[in-house]
Amino acid sequence: MRFVIDECVAPTTALLLRSLGHDVLDVKNLNRLGLKDHEIYSIACQEKRVIFTIDKGFRNFNPTRCGGIIISTIRPNTPSRYEPRLKHLLTTTHFEDLADTLVFLEEKRHRIIKH
User: Fold this and answer.
1) Where are the domains of the chain?
2) What does each C-alpha distance from 60 to 5, 18, 32, 38, 76 come to in angstroms?
3) pTM for this one?
């Protein structure tokens, strides 16, 4: 899968995704810190990338225009808490089932919402 990760996401998450074979664009590497949510969404739509974030504001965007949106709602939202859930999601779910969907990562499960 092709991902764009929000600047609020830890660099270790990009490493995790790459170790699983995914193409990852970390917005921190664009040298444009402070991008607005709609700007990140626009990048994801142009490049058909799945957005990974801990920012619940992304739930207001249409995941079918980009590659999909995955939001961690785990609290506290630290890499040691959300990365195992993200890895579990990506290693147990067919990519076709995630495409163009909104996914909420939760403490003990994930919810996939198709639009």
Assistant:
1) 2-114
2) 17, 27, 23, 10, 22
3) 0.96
